[in-house]
């Protein structure tokens, strides 16, 4: 089965980490985000994945020189310009000559969704498209999708005010689509699948949805990226090693519920808590890193404090004794 994976965005919410690296190529407690997404799809019969690329396509190509990941064949579809969600799906599917039922996923969503069940439900209803739904506390940031007793979508309401949302079941960013959906997507212009394509399918009675609870993380913000990564350490999503091979942690350092990437080092007296220290980064003696992200090869000087969801970009240096709280460095990346 084919899958289209949307990975073309600029990842602005995760800057400065994404100034040089697409967010789907950031490590999530070891493997990159895109590797985790593809591994999950492979478990459900996907054997060909079309990456809908825009920002820094070279990084993806370099990461998978043989064009495969977890046994899945990779196809690269590089948008000539940003085409929005629907336009990206249409462009990628046409580039890959998809002519049968296919899956679409957002490349920054980590989930344990049973994609096999979603495909089976889709086929049983004769739908043109089927959306996976997940419950959230605040649906105002997402597309809310009410359904009838048969699972047919009765409306598609993108980002409603919190007090007007008809339910808390939202679009989880995984779809099963028939190739006929491509006829609904104009060529050569921006098309929103949420605001144009899905509402038209609702009007025709051709869109269905399946409500399922489970792990679902939109890892596109610093807080969500930290939480998603740490969930792979504590057993809630996996049991990856907290200190990667090739990392060095001094016996006099304290590392609690954090991930230390390959080649990174944590000196004596340092405290790292609920944090991500990306590959090659250095945490100096007596420094404190708490609930923050230290970018690749960044340096936190002796006695410095990096706290409260601060994010350090690649190769950034924090001076000894400095304090950063809820900071983005370099700041102009905000």
Automatic annotation (TrEMBL):
Short name of one Pfam family: GMPPB_C
Keyword list, A-Z: Transferase
Domain Nucleotidyl transferase as annotated: residue spans: 3-231
Tagged with keyword Transferase: yes
Stretches assigned to the Mannose-1-phosphate guanyltransferase C-terminal domain: 243-329
GO molecular function, one term: transferase activity
Entries under CDD domains matching the protein: NTP_transferase
Recorded family membership: Belongs to the transferase hexapeptide repeat family.
Protein name: NTP transferase domain-containing protein
Source organism of the structure: Actinomarinicola tropica
Top-level taxonomy: Bacteria, Bacillati, Actinomycetota, Acidimicrobiia, Acidimicrobiales
